[in-house]
Amino acid sequence: MKAVIAENISKQYDGKPAVEKVSFEVNEGEIFGLIGPDGAGKTSIFRILTTLLLPDGGSAQVHHWDVVKDWRAIRNAVGYMPGKFSLYQDLTVEENLHFFATVFNTTIQENYHLIEDIYVQLEPFKNRRAGKLSGGMKQKLALCCALIHKPKVLFLDEPTTGVDPVSRREFWEMLKKLKQQNISIVVSTPYMDEASMCDRIALIQSGSILSIDTPQDLVKNYGNQLFRVKANDRYRLLEVLKSVPSTKSYAFGEYAHVSVEKDHQMDASEIAQHLQQNGLTEVEVGEAEVTIEDCFINLLH
Amino acid sequence: MEEVVIQADKLTKKFGDFTATDAITFQVRKGEIFGFLGANGAGKTTAMRMLCGLSVPTSGEAKVAGFDIYKETESIKKNIGYMSQKFSLYEDLTVVENIRFFGGIYGLNNEQIKNKTEELIERLGLTSVRKELVVDLPLGWKQKLSFSIAIIHQPKIVFLDEPTGGVDPLTRRQFWELIYEAAHNGITVFVTTHYMDEAEYCDRLSIMVDGKIKALDTPKNLKMQFEAESMDEVFYKLARQATRAE
């Protein structure tokens, strides 16, 4: 059984399309990532799948239930962590958790094994009001509350936005453990480096899916030649690279990446020569390892 | 000897028993892109607020653009620009109105404002939306406009507090091209970010842990020093030593 099936779902706001004929499937027990910037339509897709928003067109099923007809069943069977912190700020950590367990007709004890790893970190603060927690702690509590009824599918809308790299890494470790408990996870993020933690990803922009693949295959199918380039002056380097024909170039960490258009071939020495002719020194050109970010940029061009 | 535009010496801020910023010492040179990194709660915002003249230090010294952060905060404010993701533009004013408003605040005269407005709108490709409310602009356009407005008065230093969250990788890079250009033109850039690839774009970086600066060097030297492949690794090695919660 598929955890999610979305077929041509569309949504408009005041005549402006937010989601346009989006189709994808999530397999049971996998971590599926929706990767894209603000305004790409990620939140609308989450809200449609969790039955909080009606699609204008298309259909979708979560765990074989229809998102329009079977909304009650879906709400009982999924966990949803919205992008905006939505727990009760004036209830304590423990009260929030107890509240969500009760609403779903269960108890904290019954599914404690699911949240144990996360909750032990929160326990010292269990009598603190949720509104007084730090960003990282709020995020952990929200995850516990979304898990306490042992959902079949977990929807996480940008759980790591604005969180520092260390906390982000810890969060993804938690998700991997949940996956082992056979919970299917749909997660969105604007951070490209997190895409590699997913089993499969959909790259999304302006309401449409650009590509769906495993992170490995996405990178493998990049297709273009990709060079990494360095020189003495980064500002001038990027300026000069713009004039290399049949290429697209952009800053990439300590290097600039130069992507050669399809059906063209180029030699590293050609690029080096061009840069040196334009007065750059300490020029270094080599083949670059393709990342998901390169794939995304390529699809945007 | 290159001109020093930020000089901080044992700069400290305490809130009660809690030392948010703990005796930090560093220098930033003119035209440098200086990355100011640290986990959430490491003390970055507190330090930045002191440097912008918005918060009085508990102890220590600092000069920003040549002005003392205790006594000359008004001069500091005139000589710096500031942009953050949370506050930047007035969303219910149009593009042109925002430029005119901030130009006025920063003391430009009418003619300067007129010239700057045309220059900015053309350079950022905003001609078709010049009379639209900022709230209706895509996030990436807002960020570019916001940055350009933060340097409209040619400040000596611009402070950027996580300027690029939430946009696609291409838009994020276009934003960084504006940063390079500003630095190339002699504006010093002081930037915080959670994107470690952006850390690589900086000339030098400091990394704060528990209120202290634990590392300060070029990205290349930091990677050597910590025997790390990437800045992400460096950051992780340092930040996981943190003992205090956010």
From TrEMBL, chain A:
PROSITE patterns named among the record's database cross-references: ABC_TRANSPORTER_1, ABC_TRANSPORTER_2
Keyword Membrane set for record: no
Protein's name according to its UniProt entry: ABC transporter ATP-binding protein
Keywords (A to Z) from UniProt: ATP-binding, Nodulation, Nucleotide-binding, Transport
Domain ABC transporter residues, every copy: 4-231
Lineage, top ranks: Bacteria, Pseudomonadati, Bacteroidota, Flavobacteriia, Flavobacteriales
This protein's record includes keyword Transport: yes
Any one Gene Ontology molecular-function term assigned to this protein's record: ATP hydrolysis activity
Pfam family, one: ABC_tran
UniProt family annotation: Belongs to the ABC transporter superfamily.
Protein's organism: Flagellimonas pelagia
From TrEMBL, chain B:
Molecular-function annotations in GO: ATP binding; ATP hydrolysis activity
ABC transporter domain location: 6-235
Residues in coiled coil: none
InterPro entries: AAA+_ATPase, ABC_transporter-like_ATP-bd, P-loop_NTPase
Cross-referenced Gene3D superfamilies: P-loop containing nucleotide triphosphate hydrolases
Keyword Nucleotide-binding: yes
Keywords: ATP-binding, Nucleotide-binding
UniProt superkingdom: Bacteria
Name the record gives this protein: ABC transporter ATP-binding protein
